[in-house]
Amino acid sequence: MTESDFEQLPQKGTSAPAAGGRTADDEPVCTIVSNDARIIERCAVIAVGAAVRINQCADPQLLPGDGSGPVLWGSDMAALAENTSRPVDVLVGLEDSEALIWSLASRIPKARVAVLPSASQWLGEYLGLWAMRAGHGHTLALNSTAGGLGTTTLSLLLAHAGTLSGLRSAMIDLDPHSQGAWPLVCAQPPIGIGWEELQQSGGALAAHQLAETLPKLRDTAILTWSRANRTQELEDQLVIRLLAAARQGFDLVVVDAGRAPHPQRLAMNQFIDRNIATASSMTLPASGEVVLCGEQKLRCTPQGFPEILGAVPVLPRISKALERGQLFDSFKSRALRQHLSNLCLIPQVKEQHP
User: Fold this and answer.
1) Where is this region: Disordered (predicted)?
2) Which end of the chain has the least Cβ crowding within 10 Å, N or C?
């Protein structure tokens, strides 16, 4: 068995598009159900400002049923929304139809109302926030319960396991005390941007730009510090923009959050699908999902303890690969691949049918 033959067990509720499935068509899209040119034009301007593409739908029967994006219903078609099985996210109208759409909203559960132009700013913020959080990428955050457990090592291994499984994968180093992950994986970092460059740019990168400019090692993207002497902390807004772009640009994002609790956990948690604690048998958290690092198994499992997903022991091949600064060489170990597979943290690749 070779490095590329990564064993993957069935996962629970985690899936991702097939590799290479990201195209321009995957940009955030909303739909306006209306034939009123005034409403369509106003909504189009608002959507452009929120960096969301808007499609017009003149027939509610043609609406996609996959819940792929917000569905806005113009006041001229809103009466049809009351008895439809299609999504009704926002009822939109001009001031002359305000009474009508408020009346309909009272009968449609969870329907929001945007009376234009007064609600233009709200609608733009609503679409923009949805677009920011609507990335397809499955995002894991690894939070250490103590120092020296090997959380960065595990983050890199999981990200590369995703790559070997056919996913576009990235490891994002958000450890506040990180000295840079490159020494673990290579002597000379590949060409690409690090946190230093992103700080200077303010993080103003589109999803496709981020995916193209992050350095890749054996096809796994890595965002870390280029140098060990980091001089300033990351701002919340930079972290938010980065994670939003990463979710849209990659199928799997593994965040090395360092020792818990992370000072920016509130900003980060908007984008995290699963928070995983890394621990030893002596540093188990009170609850949550846990991976034991450096141990074969928990010595004893008292009732009430968190869910133990599995263990990643310190295997000789990992130790030797780390000594050489070539961590990804450790995937030659069948035992390591099996340990990672047993954690069931790598999303399955969805089959794409023509």
Assistant:
1) 1-26
2) C
Nearest C-alpha neighbor of 314 from the set 143, 145, 148: 148
pLDDT, mean of residues 172-191: 92
Alpha helices in 86-194 (DSSP H): 98-105, 120-133, 151-164, 182-185
Return the structure tokens found at 341: 């597979």
Tokens representing 352 are: 């794409």
CB-CB contact of 49 with 121 (8 Å): no
Nearest Cα to 104, choosing from 126, 86, 85, 81?
81
**Rounded to 5 degrees, what are φ and ψ at 54?**
-120, 135
From the list 13, 4, 20, the residue with the least C-alpha distance to 347 is 13
CA distance 295 to 281: 8
Rounded Cα–Cα distance for residues 202 and 55 (Å): 31
Q: Counting runs of H as helices and runs of E as strands, what totals does the chain give? A: 12, 15
Which runs of consecutive H residues, i.e. helices, occur in 116-235?
Answer: 120-133, 151-164, 182-185, 195-201, 207-213
Give the mean model confidence (pLDDT) for residues 322-336. Answer: 94
How do residues 42-87 score in pLDDT, each as one tens digit?
Answer: 999 998 887 788 999 998 888 876 556 899 999 999 889 888 888 8
